[in-house]
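Hi W.,

Here's what went into the run:
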Amino acid sequence: MKMSKSIIYTALLCSFSLALSAPAAAAKVEQVFKFYCAQCHGLEGKGDGPNVSKTFPVDPRNFTKAKEMEKLSDADMKNVIMDGGPSASKSPMMPPWSKTISEADADALVKYLRKLCNCKGKGS
Amino acid sequence: MKQLTKVLLGTGLLVLAAAPAHAGEKIFAAKKCDGCHYTQGPAREKSIADQLAKKGPELWYAGSKFQKKWLQAWLQDPKPIRSLKYNSLTADNPGGHPKLAAANAKAVTDFLMTLTSKSVKAGVIKPKKNPKGRLIFVKKMPCSGCHAFPGKKKFKGGRSGPSLVGAGKRLNPDWIFAYLKDTNEFKPVRAMPVFKGLLREKDMKKVAQYVASFK
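Here's what came out:
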């Protein structure tokens, strides 16, 4: 009985801390997105950040367009985040962030972008 | 007795030598410049929240970053360097940075020029337009996506980073290279990618030469 009580307490504690950490993680990835990505992709991810003028050499991806986003796998997206546009034959205006953001932040960003497009990636 | 005189004279000279910077530091505090700019290194920012809490750029390496003549003139007639408000992606820079009278600008400049970083080695970069630097800045890397730059083409660069138009007069060429090489030492949290490990040092030098040639 003692054993089962402690298991219940542990489970309760775990779920409580998970409930606490999920919003914190969501807030963190949103902050990462707004700090690094929104410069070009816009605060809502529509590809309309303040850098994008009529003469900007490329149209930054609109993450809310599910049809386009579905063509990419999660691995494709992480690859471009970390190694830049040219790693996927895309524009060098998309920087390589591998020396700037962590692997965990890149993974969280991919999930965040999936929420923005409300879509699943190729092969998932 | 002679020795005592020497010591006293020496101390007097030291005080005199230090006086101008001290005067500028007092003005810096009196004008509340320290409300927006911190002047003691090393860099304090550890998180995005830390960076977003800042009201203006850190100045603890101002003497390594800026050219004295430019700084003294700018403090008397400050014009926006950023197109957007500091730390904002939506609001335009409203301008209105406080102006200093000529004497105060000189004193504050003298103070700021004493704030240097050992990571900036002098005499490494000479301003020079060069095709390699241009190629990296405009095509291979995304520099122009965020920084305005001078040129004849229609695309004049992005808005989220500080403008580099006139960088040849504003920035110390050696600082540009040091910043590319050791970005995190100066700005541990900033919206610009770290290029160390992605660009070779000799290419960073070419970019620094190129940016330092901007009029």
